């Protein structure tokens, strides 16, 4: 089994396969010991899986990879590649760097600093002026650079000392400084489709750079790997490599297969990777979620909108997705409380009580039992009648206040308890509501310029059906109509 993944039986160094020549003319060599995802990295744009919306004829990526200008006579533009993990950001950078007259330099924002950036810029300027070589600087996880570190990139990008190819999983609008963003082309990568991942896995199983036909995937195992990948090519190939290891470990004649192929004897039948092997290698589906990034906001948004739309099943799915990804249950509880007031409102006044109780209970009990309490609150809200009348009412009232409406307070409603207030007419003519029939008196309550203005308009949903009828009678009595 070791030989399948590159390490010799004697523990010696593995023989490296010669790869493509790099930009300086030296052959780049990928060891058979390298991870499968590295060995299967595309060498040209035609080998790239997915992202066809970025790879059309004449696209900036095509022109950069071919070594031609993407924007005009001034030279190629820098790129910011934004997308989920495993969608090909690093791969595209390597392919672009293989263009003629290119030198490839790779930095990681996790470990690099301003000093490293300035060193690369100085070397790039020298390479351009002395050797007519363009430096392609690949900066992974640029969102981890602070403002000062990103500012250090500006001179090189603006003067085109380097072609910056920056990769990020975070929204560049929030994680990349505006000057750098305006000097770069922003390309958005999409998660791979199931068909993309399936094709990649089948290619890796047969390609000489991959598993070289030594394994065969059953339909069930292939479907399981595709499902586990979550549209992440790197995750899919890592899972395949792990499943192959399990399959070879289970094979009674694994040693014979490896020895036979290594000695030049007739190649034995490939080892079958079954569903049980993939389940043992990686039995938990990937959860695409980033507590500090877009996924945090996107999933939370989908969660609230599912509750608002009364789809209890979708709401429970997004709840599970957040909790399984390690989201703070208190954040989820706060969103539920807000939804109870905003989306359910007076159509079911008990929804807010349930939501507040759930928030308090989660803090008292914690996880994992807290998931049960949150689920109960979600089911209550999602299945409850909906009304945003109270939410819309306060918004309209605030809009009027900000517009300068609501001048003064009627004198009969003003405070009449301090000395001299009665001489000002405060409280004069005030009608005590409890003295009137049904405790409702005809009396002006709003300022003069807001008399007759309605803010709360109940719907016909749930409890608000009765409220609407009652509110109509109350307004007639209070306003004397």
Strand content: 5-15%
Class from helix and strand fractions: alpha/beta
The averaged pLDDT comes out at 82
CATH topology of the largest domain: Rossmann fold
Kindly report the name of the CATH homologous superfamily of the largest domain. P-loop containing nucleotide triphosphate hydrolases
Shape, please?
elongated
Strand order of the largest sheet: 4-5-6-3-7
- CATH C-level name of the largest domain: Alpha Beta
CATH architectural group of the largest domain: 3-Layer(aba) Sandwich
Radius of gyration: 33 Å
Largest sheet: 5 strands, parallel
Order of SSEs:
EEHHEHEHEHHEHHEHEHHHEHHHHHHHH
Helix content estimate: 40-55%
Q: Give the count of helical stretches.
A: 20
User: How many individual domains?
Assistant: 4
State the separation between the terminal residues, measured CA to CA: 90 Å
Number of strands: 9
Low-confidence stretches: 5-28, 69-74, 256-263
What tags apply to this protein structure?
alpha/beta; Rossmann fold; Helicase, Ruva Protein, domain 3; Zinc Finger, Delta Prime, domain 3; 4 domains; 5-stranded parallel β-sheet; two-stranded antiparallel sheet
Task: Explain what the structure shows.
The protein is built from 20 helices and 9 strands. The chain has 4 domains: 51-188, Rossmann fold; 194-281, Orthogonal Bundle (Helicase, Ruva Protein, domain 3); 294-383, Zinc Finger, Delta Prime, domain 3 (Up-down Bundle), CATH 1.20.272.10; 405-479, Orthogonal Bundle (post-AAA+ oligomerization domain-like). Residues 5-28, 69-74 and 256-263 have low confidence and may be disordered. The protein has helices spanning 36-39, 60-66, 89-97, 114-131, 147-151, 154-158, 172-175, 178-182, 194-206, 219-229, 233-250, 254-262, 275-281, 294-308, 312-324, 329-344, 350-365, 370-383, 389-402, 464-479, and strands at 17-21, 27-30, 78-82, 102-108, 134-140, 162-168, 184-188, 215-217, 271-273. The chain is α/β, with parallel strands linked by helices. 46% of the residues lie in helices and 10% in strands. Strands 4-5-6-3-7 form a 5-stranded parallel beta sheet. The protein has a two-stranded antiparallel sheet with strand order 1-2. It is elongated.
């Amino acid at each position: 089994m070791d030989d399948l993944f590159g390490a010799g039986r004697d523990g010696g160094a593995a023989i490296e396969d010669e790869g493509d020549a790099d930009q300086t003319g030296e052959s780049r060599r990928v060891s058979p010991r390298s991870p499968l995802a590295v060995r299967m990295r595309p060498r040209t744009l035609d080998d790239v899986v997915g992202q066809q919306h970025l790879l059309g004829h004449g696209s900036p990526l095509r022109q950069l990879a071919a070594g031609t200008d993407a924007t005009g006579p001034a030279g190629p533009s820098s790129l910011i590649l934004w997308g989920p993990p495993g969608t090909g950001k690093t791969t595209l950078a390597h392919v672009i760097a293989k263009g003629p007259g290119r030198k490839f330099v790779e930095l990681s924002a996790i470990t690099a600093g301003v000093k490293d950036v300035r060193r690369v810029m100085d070397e790039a300027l020298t390479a351009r002026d002395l050797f007519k070589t363009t430096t392609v600087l690949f900066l992974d996880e640029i969102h981890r650079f602070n403002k000062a570190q990103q500012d250090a990139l500006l001179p090189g990008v603006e003067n085109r000392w380097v072609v910056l190819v920056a990769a990020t999983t975070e929204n560049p609008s929030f994680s990349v400084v505006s000057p750098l963003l305006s000097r770069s082309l922003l390309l958005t990568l999409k998660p791979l489709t199931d068909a993309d991942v399936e094709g990649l896995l089948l290619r890796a199983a047969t390609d000489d750079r991959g598993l070289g036909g030594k394994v065969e995937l059953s339909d069930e195992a292939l479907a399981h790997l595709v499902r586990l990948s979550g549209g992440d090519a790197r995750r899919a190939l890592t899972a395949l490599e792990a499943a192959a290891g399990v399959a070879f470990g289970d094979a009674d004649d694994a040693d014979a297969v490896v020895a036979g192929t290594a000695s030049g004897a007739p190649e034995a039948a490939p080892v079958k990777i079954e569903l049980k092997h993939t389940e043992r290698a990686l039995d938990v589906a990937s959860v695409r979620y980033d507590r500090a990034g877009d996924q945090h906001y996107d999933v939370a948004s989908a969660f609230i909108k599912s509750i608002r739309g009364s789809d209890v099943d979708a709401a429970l799915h997004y709840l599970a997705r957040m909790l399984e990804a390690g989201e703070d249950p208190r954040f989820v509880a706060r969103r539920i409380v807000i939804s109870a007031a905003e989306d359910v409102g007076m159509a079911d006044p008990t929804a807010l009580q349930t939501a507040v109780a759930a928030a308090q209970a989660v803090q008292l009990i914690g996880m994992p039992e807290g998931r049960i309490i949150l689920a109960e609150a979600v089911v209550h809200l999602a299945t409850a009648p909906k009304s945003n009348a109270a939410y819309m009412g306060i918004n309209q009232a605030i809009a009027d206040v900000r517009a300068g409406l609501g001048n003064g307070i009627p004198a009969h409603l003003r405070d009449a308890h301090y000395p001299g207030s009665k001489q000002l007419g405060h409280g004069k003519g005030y009608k005590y509501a409890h003295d009137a029939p049904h405790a409702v008196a005809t009396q002006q309550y709003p300022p003069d310029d807001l008399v007759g203005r309605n803010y709360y308009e109940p719907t016909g949903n749930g409890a608000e059906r009765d409220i609407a009828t009652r509110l109509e009678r109350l307004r007639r009595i209070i306003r004397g109509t």
